[in-house]
Amino acid sequence: MLQVQHLTVTHQRDLRVLFSDLSFSVSGTDRLAVIGEEGDGKSTLLQLIARWPDVPPWCTAEGQISAAGERIGYLPQESDLPEISVYDFCAQSPAFTQAGWEELAAACAVTRLDPEIPYLATPVASLSGGERVKLRLTLLLLTGPTLLLLDEPTNDLDTEALEALEAFLTTCALPIVYVSHDETLLRATAKRILHLESLRGRVTPRWTLANIPYEAYVTQRADSFRRQEQQAQMERREKAARDARLQRIEEKVAHAQETVRRRDPHGARLLKKKMKAVKSLEHRFARADEEMTERPWAEQAIDASWMEGITLPEGKVVLDLALPELRAGERLLARDVRLHIRGPEKVLIVGANGSGKTTLLRRIAEELLPRADLSVGYMPQNYLDTLPPEATPVEALHTDGSKEQLTAIRTGLGAFRFTRDEMSHPIRLLSGGQKAKLFLLRMILEKRNVLLLDEPSRNLSPLSAPIMRGMIADFPGCVICVTHDRELIARCPGRVMRLSPEGLRLE
Asked: Which residues pair with 421 in a beta bridge?
């Protein structure tokens, strides 16, 4: 059994409390999904559980974590890839070197990984993002864990692998604590929810433990907020009417006092007592007002009001791509890849892991970025490909040195929920979701009318991801987006194209 008791964690860089007095337990076949906005401590919590009592140097922790007798299998978010072959990467795991072919094949069947991949001599970096996730999860299962901690296991997985992961999370006999932003996965698998929030300008932490499935939690939370808001509004209307009545009485008594003070000393004394009673009533009401229902506090997501002034004519040819072959090095990915786009179209590119979606988007970027008649913004899958890791968000965005741009940058970062301290952190220390928001803000400030997005919602929380989907749908320019986001695919207002060895085909 895993037990977390009275855990308080403080971020040392900006002295911000991530969560306070957090307590919960996990056992049996629990499926505890940890949700929340970027930077609110989800990954930190899993890292603390996996490595307790070791605490990362950038935070302090008080409380207790106990997992006596458990063999923890921890899948962190992917960090920098080693410059070694896939086989050498796997051979670093004793469980892989000791496993027989049947054990490996069984683990690969669970994760839907091609069992030949662990033996490849090609670099790890040559695998697709989804293939790397499946490989790391396969190696983790070979260790025989009794408790699983999974930090964003859905990142970069194709639809088939996502469905396999859902089946695994549903049927696995082990307790699992996992961080996920995939709403479809959460609805299908989560039995309990731990929601980490940071309110009032991200200075007040709040956590909610709900022993109900995700869909029920979302509904219950919305209903509770609605009832609380209605109750708060009713109490404030009653307070306003009561205060108005009291003010009229006070004004009436004060006027009477002025009128009778000299002519009727006895009446003046009575009015003075009455005024004292009115003031006493005011104080009693003020104390009662302290117990009024608070308006519900909810963490705010990204601000979507940014697209004014972006235009792209309906008939303008954005892309006329015809590739006889799509290759990644010597590897042939697809033949006869054709894509024609005019005006403010929305095109989603889907396909299996390793099919070449990211390679295709890079090829499209190479063609469109030099175009002087378009203003193109490109968000790669690896954010640090084009973001300077040691620069701060403000430094990365402040390109013209003007005070006006600096003000716009700070305003935009605030709208995207960066604290003042986080605006001064090196970009490499930001969460994946914060880097995604930084890319989006850069495109906003530069007024791009064509967006090339590689998995834009994969690191965004269930609070921010729906807004990102809405922004893609409502964007007045052109969007070409590689995605495995099933919610986005289901609601796409444009074309969904599947990349396969035979080329691009309409879904």
From this structure: none
The string of pLDDT tens digits covering residues 52-102 is: 999 988 899 999 999 988 999 999 987 667 889 999 999 999 999 999 999
Class of domain 2-221: alpha beta
Unique residue bearing structure tokens 């957090």: 22
- What residues does 342 pair with on adjacent strands? 317
317-506 has the same fold as 2-221? yes
- Cβ-in-10-Å burial (0-12, 13-18, 19+) of 354 comes to buried
Domains of the chain by residue range: 2-221, 317-506
Tell me if the pTM is above 0.85.
no
Structure tokens at 370: 């030099």
Query: Parallel, antiparallel, or unpaired for β 204-210 and 192-199?
Result: antiparallel
Q: How many CB atoms lie within 10 A of CB 400?
A: 7
User: Quick one: which H or E segment has residue 166?
Assistant: helix 159-171
The DSSP annotation for 232-251 comes to HHHHHHHHHHHHHHHHHHHH
Structure-token pair, residue 243? 């205060």
Q: Are strands 317-328 and 204-210 parallel, antiparallel or unpaired?
A: unpaired
Residues, the chain: 507
Query: CA–CA separation, 17 vs 4, rounded Å?
Result: 17
Q: What is the pLDDT of residues 412-469, one digit of tens each?
A: 888 777 888 889 889 988 877 788 888 888 888 888 999 999 988 877 777 777 777 8
> What superfamily would CATH give domain 317-506?
P-loop containing nucleotide triphosphate hydrolases (3.40.50.300)
260-310 confidence digits (pLDDT tens): 765 676 666 776 777 788 778 777 777 777 666 666 555 555 555 556 678
